[in-house]
Design a protein that fits this description.
CATH superfamily of the domain at 27-148 and 217-257: Class I glutamine amidotransferase (GATase) domain
Largest sheet: 9 strands, mixed
CATH architecture of the domain at 27-148 and 217-257: 3-Layer(aba) Sandwich
Strand order of the largest sheet: 2-1-3-4-9-8-7-5-6
Mean pLDDT: 91
Shape: globular
CATH class of the domain at 27-148 and 217-257: Alpha Beta
Helix content: 25-40%
Structural class: alpha/beta
Distance between the termini: 49 Å
Radius of gyration: 21 Å
Low-confidence stretches: 1-21
Order of helices and strands: HEHEEHEHEEEEEHH
Number of strands: 9
Strand content: 25-35%
CATH topology of the domain at 27-148 and 217-257: Rossmann fold
């Protein structure tokens, strides 16, 4: 027996050491995905985004999906008093341009003004058109770019213009399937924003004349002097949202926004959804 006890203790110690790294593993990033409204297959895209990002990074999700397909309906999640409490980042993918009540918009912006990171995709850019639109709105200050419309659906050539950031490291230019290229109505980003990629689209207008449209389609913004915002106007069709190149970009942008774009977090999540 005296010989057995030391062996057991040594085994237990070794087992404890083998488990030690698990305690050092970073906590999952808690993300809220807000989506719904007009014009997109949000029912499918909620799966493409959450599963796609979590296959690439240690991110767990809560989904605020609004099945309403209009532009006037506020996502019910925002009716909560502390709607953003407990989350590390919010992904805004809603399409509700006619939600214009300034107090409502201020409530949505409040946690971000206080420093909560954000990711804004596609139609999230065209939402909350309060007084001052199209020249300037509180929402545009948040997104970092004023965008008021888009051309027809056609392939977009994506060219990265800043390869020195951690977000774009290792990413390659690519050409999308038919997509919507959102305009930059003010002609440029706000001073608080930094372009990462441009999109170029060639199509024929109503008169049959070939038209070339170009616009910034991926950028970052520093909102209210401190909040990190990653934004892209890409993401209309399911083929784009489910594209590995799009999901790589979205994942890296999300991790950048929370200051955790590193190898420790670029690992698949063990659990995709946050239990409630």
């Amino acid at each position: 027996m005296p010989r057995v006890l030391p062996a057991v203790l040594m085994f237990a110690a070794a087992l404890g050491l083998s488990r030690a790294p698990a305690a050092d593993e970073p906590k999952p990033i808690r993300a809220l995905l807000v989506l719904g409204g007009c014009c997109h297959d949000y029912k499918k895209q909620q799966e493409l985004i959450t599963k796609g990002v979590s296959a690439r990074a240690n991110v767990q999700w809560a989904i605020a999906y609004d099945p309403d397909t209009g532009t006037k309906h506020l996502n019910p999640w925002y009716e909560k008093e502390d709607w953003a409490k407990g989350f590390d980042v919010v992904v805004h993918d809603e399409c509700c341009s006619d939600v214009k009540d300034i107090k409502t918009v201020e409530k949505i912006l409040a946690p971000h003004k206080a420093g909560l990171p954000a990711v804004i995709t596609h139609c999230g850019m065209h939402s909350y058109r309060t007084e001052g639109y199209p020249k300037s709105t509180p929402w545009f200050e948040f997104t970092g770019l004023a965008s008021t419309g888009h051309g027809p659906q056609a392939p977009i050539d994506i060219t990265f213009v800043d390869n020195d950031t951690k977000i774009t490291a290792g990413l390659k230019d690519w050409k999308t399937v038919n997509e919507e290229l959102y305009n930059n109505s003010a002609g440029k980003l706000l001073e608080t924003a930094q372009p990462l990629a441009k999109g170029k689209q060639i199509f024929k207008n109503k008169n049959g004349k070939e038209t070339v449209a170009e616009a910034v389609c991926v950028w970052t913004n520093k909102y209210n002097g401190k909040t990190k915002v990653f934004a892209t106007t890409l993401g209309h069709n399911n083929e784009t949202v489910g594209d590995a190149r799009y999901l790589d970009l979205l994942t890296r942008g999300l991790l950048w926004s929370v200051g955790k774009l590193d190898e420790a977090h670029l690992k698949p999540a063990k659990q995709v959804m946050i239990e409630k």
